[in-house]
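RESIDUES AND SHAPES:
===
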Amino acid sequence: MIDHMGFAVSDIARSRRFYEAALAPLGMGVIMVATPEQTQSGGTAIGFGKTDVGYPFFWIGDNERVGEGTHVAFPADSRAAVDAFHAAAVAAGGVDHGGPGLRPHYGPNYYAAFVLDPDGANIEAVCRGPG
């Protein structure tokens, strides 16, 4: 299962308009906008999802080259599993891209870690529970 995914776009405003229109018939819309101060790339990120899910599961973002910025997040059952993911990924040759910790700008219990895989994709493990 995948928790959420995202990729870089060349024009955030144009892409937002496109996805808002294209995803509306599927019952999806903008759930969250992350400012440049809140993102790892220093750009704007827009998260889409269904309101009944409660969090965005499809993201677009700028300030990265199209083709780069590919992002996949896997759900973790616990914060300890996030910690273990990060340690194992770095030991296997991944590059630390954000150590385990709370990211309250994504949600009150959002605990995640990020690594870049051997090709530069941003891989995340996230626990949304309180512990």
Notes: The radius of gyration is 14 Å. The chain has two domains: 1-64, 70-131.
